[in-house]
């Protein structure tokens, strides 16, 4: 019913139009622009989806390759905060951060020392990555090993094994 009314309307409009070539020209322009717009959408939507997928994939790869050669674990800020009981028991302070005593929830027998870094600036991003990479690759009987790190926004923390009964200098940390 609606289609027949629409067709009748077009027929009446054509019969009233003094110049049929103008109508053909307008119809051609409308049809051409409609086809062009539909083709544009047909190509733009998959291209945008591919762009955002690749961007997301690159972000995932950059995070996973942030510290490629280390065997350290990534901790969330919440995990390390819970391990330290809200950063209450201080072991020492240094130029770059405060060291806290804690116990990891995953292993109640594993005591850790968590260094909470003071200054978090963009210029320090490279230095933080370098520190995690170098300390994570260093293995020596006289050095405390790096268990993991946290790099969430303004929170940068290093988690190391806590050694009891031995003289360990926090300033060497």
UniProtKB/TrEMBL annotation:
Transmembrane segments: 25-53
Statement: the UniProt record of this protein carries the keyword Transmembrane helix: yes
Entry keyword annotation includes Signal: yes
PROSITE patterns, A to Z: PROTEIN_KINASE_ATP, PROTEIN_KINASE_DOM
Domain Protein kinase: 85-173
InterPro entries: G-type_lectin_kinases/EP1-like (IPR051343), Kinase-like_dom_sf (IPR011009), Prot_kinase_dom (IPR000719), Protein_kinase_ATP_BS (IPR017441), Ser-Thr/Tyr_kinase_cat_dom (IPR001245)
Keyword terms, alphabetized: ATP-binding, Membrane, Nucleotide-binding, Signal, Transmembrane, Transmembrane helix
Molecular function via GO: ATP binding; protein kinase activity
Residues reported to bind ATP: 116
Lineage: superkingdom: Eukaryota
PANTHER family per UniProt: G-TYPE LECTIN S-RECEPTOR-LIKE SERINE/THREONINE-PROTEIN KINASE SD2-5, RECEPTOR-LIKE SERINE_THREONINE-PROTEIN KINASE
Protein name: Protein kinase domain-containing protein
Organism the protein comes from: Vitis vinifera
